C-alpha cells in the first residue's frame, strides 16, 4: 500500500479510483466492511482502491476541547487499512482551510481532479464540507453532476450494538473491553515502548513490564486479563491500568505481569491486548496483601484462558460474558 500525505503527490498518469473517506479511528468492523467493499469494487473495475483519512482528527482542529482520545495512532491505523487490501492511503492534513471547502469544492479538489473517482463509498452518517453541510444525499447529487457513483453502506450492528468509534470509546471508558473487542473485530490493544518502572513490583509483589505513556484511549482504571505481545510471541498476562495507590499517588500507568514466564525480556516494545476486566484498582494496607490479591488475579486469569481454549475448540459455542470466577472482588 502506498501512503501519500498531499494530493500534489498524485502524479500523471493517474488511474481511476474507487474511493472511501473517513477518520477510520480504530478500523473497526464497520470500517473493515467499507474498506473491503472498496477493494472489491476497485478490482471489478480495474481501478485503484483508495482510502482518504485525516491527520489530525478534524475535531482537534475545530474544537480541541472536545477532541476524543484516539483508539490508535496513525501508524497502526495505516497497518490495519493495508490489511484490507487498499492500494492507496491518502492522509490529508486537516486544516481550517480544508474545513472551509464547500461540498462542491471538496468533491472537485479531493475526489474528482486528483483521484479521478469512479465511485465513492461511505457510511450512512458521512458528512463533509463547511460546517458539515454535505451529507450522503448531497454527495449523491454531486456524484451525478461530476460523473461518479455513490454507494452508502448501511449501519452495522453486532449483537444489537451500533459499531462506531464513539461507541467503542464509551465501552472502554466503562471497562467493557470484551464488548469493545467485539465491535473492533479483534481485542482492543495498546502498544508502545517498554520503560523502567519504579521497581516496587519486583521488590514487593511481582515483576511487571511498564508501558510508556501514550496519548491514545485506555480502558477504565482497573485490573484486566490480557495477552502481552513481545516480538512474535503472545504471553498470557494480567495488566493493571491505574495509579498504584498502595505505594502512593502516582501518574497513570499500564503495567503487565506475564503468567508462567521466566527469563529476560530483550524486546523494546510490547502490545497489550485487553480481554476481560477483573476488578477495580484498590488501595491495600500493605504490599503483602496486594501480592496475595495479585496471585488471586493470576489464578482467575489462568482459569479464563483455560475456558477460552475450551470454547475455541468448540466452534458451535460462544465464549460466555460472565466472569471467569463467580467470586466477587
Q: Main attributes?
A:
329 residues, Elongation Factor Tu (Ef-tu), domain 3, disordered C terminus, six-stranded parallel sheet, Rossmann fold, 14 strands, single chain, six-stranded antiparallel beta barrel, alpha/beta, 2 domains, 10 helices
Q: Radius of gyration from the CA trace?
A: 23 Å
Helices and strands: which structural class? alpha/beta
How many helix segments? 10
What's the CATH first level of the largest domain? Alpha Beta
Question: What order do the SSEs take from the amino end to the carboxyl end, as H and E?
Answer: EEHEHHEHHEHEEEHHEHEEEEEH
Task: Name the CATH homologous superfamily of the largest domain.
Answer: HUPs
Mean pLDDT: 91
Largest sheet report: 6 strands, parallel
Which geometry do the CA atoms define? elongated
Query: Which strands sit side by side, in order, in the main sheet?
Result: 1-4-3-2-5-6
Question: In words, what does this structure look like?
Answer:
By secondary structure, this protein is α/β, with parallel strands linked by helices. It folds into two domains: 2-155, 3-Layer(aba) Sandwich (Rossmann fold), CATH 3.40.50.620; 161-312, Elongation Factor Tu (Ef-tu), domain 3 (Beta Barrel), CATH 2.40.30. The chain has ten helices and 14 strands. Strands 1-4-3-2-5-6 form a six-stranded parallel sheet, sandwiched between helices. A hairpin with a 2-residue loop joins strand 11 and strand 12. Helix 5 (103-112) packs across helix 6 (136-146).
Topology record:
Layout: E1 2-4, E2 17-21, H1 29-45, E3 48-55, H2 58-62, H3 74-83, E4 88-93, H4 96-99, H5 103-112, E5 117-122, H6 136-146, E6 149-152, E7 157-158, E8 161-162, H7 165-174, H8 177-184, E9 188-195, H9 200-204, E10 209-211, E11 222-230, E12 233-242, E13 253-258, E14 269-279, H10 287-312
